[in-house]
């Protein structure tokens, strides 16, 4: 599991930590030396993630299951009274020990964070049972502007800040203050998932302090799960004390909370004790994450009047995920006496509802007076309903234009109006093979619904993606008989992207923006860890884009590409090269509620005639200049017949009607070429171990989840969502040649897009035996080529700084009705095109470079800078209910040359691809827009029906779940199916070995 932004920031600050007693001789030996700082500003180092409370899209019947689909078995009835008393007595001992540790002065400081949080340790502290001594760690910090109740609300909502926490649920209330809970922790790299059975207790003191503790217990009410390791925590606790700061600044809040965190864990592992201690010593620094969350978002609202089960943080399955806007205190009405009167920023009710134990009185000291009923089982917990009468409504008057009923779902934001998009070039030489690949793609998707029994579910540690594997189709006649080719099982996977979770408070993510992230070379290099750019071009090109554009067929998203798959040592010792065609079909659909939605289908396919790839490569002179060895390399692979094949691979991205979700489906069928692998493999297709094809296939199946995580963490990839026909061709995105940051690439928002313009050469033209079609056909001399560019606020929080070279090749304006959207109106007759002076006069290279605006002071109201200009003109869009005459003329031109049967190149045009006539969009000065895009001419099967049958298909047979396959693209060494090592494990092994050697030599 890669380090998150929290972890990275902490490890980057290692120089500011004091890691041992010997290194910090002047450090205070007791936590009492920590005085609350009185400066008015505190800058948290960490930036909290945008996740909110755990979402549940399932019904209440799933409440009895954990998040991985495994049922949490429950014993009949409730816990027997003896166990209840035993657990209450145990947690009382834990609480007493925390209070004892609070007054203990035998602490030694081991860490210090730049925000002021300090970590102390006792190396030889006794456990609760006093049978052994285990180190105990304590973190101390000050959170300004918030009361203990507000801080505790964030602590209780573990999903907001805790990187260890995956999910959990309340099992049973043992008393008014004690609960039995279940928690699942995230799995690290090379480790299995761990879970906990905890007994928890919370107390509130008369002075406003809050005490919380938890400890592991063994009970049949929380049985072990076979695929998980049951961890054990001796002691985990929080002490929150109210602090009154001096009134040094007029108007500043004097409210603060001293936060003390305790942790005692007996780590039973082969890892060296020194390593485990350093790892646990960093855990109390989670105080900085809680502080960072509060300073940026405020305290989560505590909803009064709902059940304790709904409010309990472990009951993640019954709690809806809301954006921070919905959950802000300002939007919900609470009694005045339930707010913190010291500071407006700390406007959270004095309640403990996030732990299911809260007071409805103004004073926190009245905690525990409410009587609660015991919950017999988690399956009986009702689902949280945001429309419940118990949830307080906004204090401002409702919008008169909103007529939604209380029981109806929240209205979905309408799809943005977009200009027209160019169509796939049906005159390309490979169109027939693309049509056949599309048919095969559709057949596999239909087979998934009609023959579900042949598709085995792949278990994985991630619940956000569903994966299936089918080995029957390839074994039943689809196997490629060419020498050295090994057909992998067909894999299908899907995930749901929820805008409420991904972009709270921001414009909703659209299918077009997801497709940009999938198609972007730089983005794919980040999220697709299994496929990567070819490394044999030399070390100077080790950071080049994931795949190389060999040829473009329509000037934008249709072309031929070159990419590779990494080796799997020792079974596949060399990288596998693929040469494949890519076509993107963009199609609007209309749901039953007459709402316009988008569906995008991406098809990848390798042709049988590999010599055709060499012919296409001849046209791309840019590639010869940037990568002079690619032509020789591709020719060598073709002559040796060592290219691997993409039989078919594809994506379906579609918005879900009446919802804020977008469904991402991926299907892949690959044939690996094992020829010339070192040592030489036999030509038999049985040359790979049985487990290895499933391992590779399951890694490929995780791609939708990787796209989902990339968008969640960084935002969608910037780029062009619409590209009209014209003379300017898109050549892909690249890494900036001179990046200002060490972390280069799309993660830091530094991207370069390249374009080219085909120039008409003077003099006699060389004739070809077979004339090659033009990649793009301009509709009319009077029609300009307009394109729309979009970027994500999450990737560019303060705005985007663009540089266009040459400057005169396009007019760039802001689109008024679409946020973070620019319109590029290309000028084919610009002066820069008349004297190109590059590439033998064949092409003029255009570059568009993007960087982040690093501060709000450097930004503008439009949040965009172009070539140093801080103000751009605006272009307006408007909806036209009738199709323009020019659009009809364009369609007539598309139909010209076709047979009366409506066929082009032997492929029939499906009627479902006719453009919608009820809404078209156009700019004020541009005559050729449409509501989403003009649907392209289709291959034999229509993409509009791809998933239609999926919704109606019958499920014949039960879904078969097989043994868990490791979904880890970082595998370095594989011995057999059960014994394998990732690169991180190998590196960690050598680090531990070196540490042990140094300790034995010098320790």
Automatic annotation (TrEMBL):
Comp. bias (Polar residues): 27-42, 56-79, 348-369, 377-393, 905-925
Bias (Low complexity) occurs at 927-944
Domain START, by residue range, is: 103-282
Superkingdom classification of source? Eukaryota
Q: Which Pfam families match?
A: START
In the record, what terms sit under GO molecular function? lipid binding
Residue ranges annotated as compositionally biased, kind Basic and acidic residues, are: 885-897
Which parts of this chain are annotated as the region Disordered?
1-79, 305-324, 334-417, 885-962
Q: Which Gene Ontology terms of cellular component type are present?
A: cytoplasm
Per UniProt, the ranges with Acidic residues bias are 11-26
Instruction: Name the PROSITE patterns for this protein.
Output: START (PS50848)
- Protein name as it appears in the record: START domain-containing protein
State the organism of origin.
Puccinia coronata f. sp. avenae
């Amino acid at each position: 599991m890669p380090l998150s932004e929290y972890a990275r920031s902490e490890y980057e600050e290692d120089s500011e930590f004091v890691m041992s007693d010997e290194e910090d001789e002047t450090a205070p030996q007791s936590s009492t030396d920590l005085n609350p700082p009185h400066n008015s500003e505190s800058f948290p180092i960490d930036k909290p993630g945008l996740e909110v409370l755990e979402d549940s899209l399932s019904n209440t019947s799933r409440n009895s299951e954990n998040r991985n689909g495994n049922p949490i078995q429950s014993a009949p009835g409730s816990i027997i009274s003896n166990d209840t008393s035993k657990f209450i007595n145990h947690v009382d001992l834990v609480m007493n020990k925390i209070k004892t540790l609070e007054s203990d002065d035998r602490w030694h400081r081991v860490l210090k964070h730049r925000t002021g949080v300090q970590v102390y340790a006792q190396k030889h502290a006794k456990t609760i049972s006093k049978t052994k001594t285990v180190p105990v760690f304590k973190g101390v910090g000050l959170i300004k502007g918030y009361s203990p109740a507000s801080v505790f609300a964030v602590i209780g909502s573990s999903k907001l800040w805790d990187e260890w926490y995956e999910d959990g649920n309340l099992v049973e209330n043992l008393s008014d203050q004690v609960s039995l809970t279940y928690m699942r922790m995230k799995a690290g790299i090379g480790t299995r998932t761990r879970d906990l059975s905890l007994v928890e207790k919370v107390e509130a003191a008369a002075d406003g302090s809050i005490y919380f503790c938890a400890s592991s217990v063994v009970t049949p009410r929380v049985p072990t799960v076979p695929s998980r390791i049951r961890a054990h925590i001796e002691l985990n606790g929080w002490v929150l004390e109210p602090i009154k700061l001096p009134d040094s600044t007029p108007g500043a809040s004097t409210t603060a909370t001293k936060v003390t965190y305790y942790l005692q864990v007996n780590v039973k592992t082969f890892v060296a004790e020194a390593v485990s201690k350093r790892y646990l010593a960093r855990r109390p620094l989670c105080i900085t994450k809680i502080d960072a969350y509060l300073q940026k978002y405020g305290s989560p609202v505590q909803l009064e009047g709902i059940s304790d089960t709904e409010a309990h943080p472990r009951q993640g399955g019954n709690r809806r995920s809301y954006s921070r806007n919905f959950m802000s205190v300002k939007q919900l009405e609470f009694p005045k006496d339930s707010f913190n009167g010291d500071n407006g920023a700390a406007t959270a009710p004095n309640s403990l509802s996030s732990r299911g134990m809260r007071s409805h009185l103004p004073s926190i000291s009245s905690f525990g007076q409410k009587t609660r009923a015991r919950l017999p089982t988690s399956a009986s917990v009702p689902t949280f309903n945001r429309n419940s009468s118990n949830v307080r409504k906004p204090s401002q008057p409702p919008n008169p234009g909103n007529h939604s009923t209380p029981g109806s779902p929240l209205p979905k934001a309408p799809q943005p109006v977009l200009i027209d998009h160019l169509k796939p070039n049906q005159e390309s030489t490979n169109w027939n093979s693309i049509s056949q690949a599309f048919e095969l793609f559709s057949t596999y998707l239909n087979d998934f619904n009609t023959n579900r029994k042949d598709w085995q579910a792949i278990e994985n540690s991630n619940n956000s993606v569903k994966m299936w594997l089918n080995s029957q189709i390839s074994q039943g006649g689809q196997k490629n008989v060419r020498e050295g080719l090994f057909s992998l099982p067909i894999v299908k996977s899907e995930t749901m992207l929820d805008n409420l979770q991904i972009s709270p408070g921001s414009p909703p993510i659209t299918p077009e923006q997801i497709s940009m992230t999938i198609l972007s070379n730089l983005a794919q290099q980040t999220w697709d860890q299994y496929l990567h750019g070819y490394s044999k071009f030399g070390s100077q090109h080790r950071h080049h884009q994931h795949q190389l554009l060999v040829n473009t067929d329509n000037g934008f998203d249709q072309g031929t590409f070159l990419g590779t798959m990494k080796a799997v040592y020792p079974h596949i010792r060399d990288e596998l090269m693929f040469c494949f065609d890519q076509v993107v079909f963009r199609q609007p659909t209309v749901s039953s509620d007459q709402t316009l939605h988008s569906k995008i289908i991406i098809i990848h396919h390798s042709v049988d005639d590999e010599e055709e790839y060499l012919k296409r490569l001849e046209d791309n002179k840019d590639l010869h200049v940037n990568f002079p060895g690619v032509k020789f390399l591709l020719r060598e692979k073709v002559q040796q017949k060592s290219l691997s094949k993409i039989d078919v691979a594809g994506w379906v991205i579609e918005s879900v009607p009446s919802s804020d979700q977008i469904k991402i489906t991926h299907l892949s069928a690959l044939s690996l070429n094992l020829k010339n692998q070192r040592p030489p493999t036999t030509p038999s297709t049985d040359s790979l171990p049985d487990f290895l094809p499933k391992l590779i296939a399951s890694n490929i199946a995780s791609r939708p989840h990787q796209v989902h995580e990339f968008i969640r963490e960084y935002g969608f990839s910037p780029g062009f969502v619409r590209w009209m026909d014209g003379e300017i061709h898109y050549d892909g995105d690249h890494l900036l040649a001179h990046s200002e940051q060490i972390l280069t690439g799309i993660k830091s928002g530094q991207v370069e897009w390249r374009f080219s313009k085909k120039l008409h050469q003077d003099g006699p033209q060389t004739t070809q035996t077979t004339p090659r079609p033009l990649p793009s056909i301009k509709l009319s001399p009077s029609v300009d080529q307009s394109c729309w560019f979009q970027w994500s606020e999450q990737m560019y929080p303060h705005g985007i700084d663009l540089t266009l070279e040459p400057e005169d090749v396009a007019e760039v304006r802001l689109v008024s009705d679409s946020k973070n959207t620019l319109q590029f109106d290309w000028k084919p007759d610009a002066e820069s095109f008349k004297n190109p002076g590059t590439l033998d006069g064949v092409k003029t290279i255009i570059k568009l470079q993007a960087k982040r605006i690093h501060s709000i002071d450097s930004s503008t109201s439009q949040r965009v800078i172009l070539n140093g200009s801080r103000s751009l003109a605006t272009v307006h869009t408007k909806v036209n209910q009738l199709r323009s005459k020019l659009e009809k003329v364009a369609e007539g031109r598309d139909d010209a040359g076709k047979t009366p049967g409506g066929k082009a190149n032997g492929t029939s045009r499906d009627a479902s691809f006719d453009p919608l006539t009820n809404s078209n969009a156009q700019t004020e000065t541009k005559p050729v827009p449409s509501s989403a895009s003009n649907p392209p001419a289709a291959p034999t099967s229509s993409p509009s029906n791809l998933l239609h049958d999926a919704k109606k298909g019958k499920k014949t047979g039960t879904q078969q779940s097989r043994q868990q396959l490791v979904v880890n693209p970082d595998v370095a060494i594989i011995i057999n199916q059960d014994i394998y090592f990732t690169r991180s494990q190998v590196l960690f092994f050598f680090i531990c070995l070196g540490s042990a050697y140094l300790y034995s030599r010098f320790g």
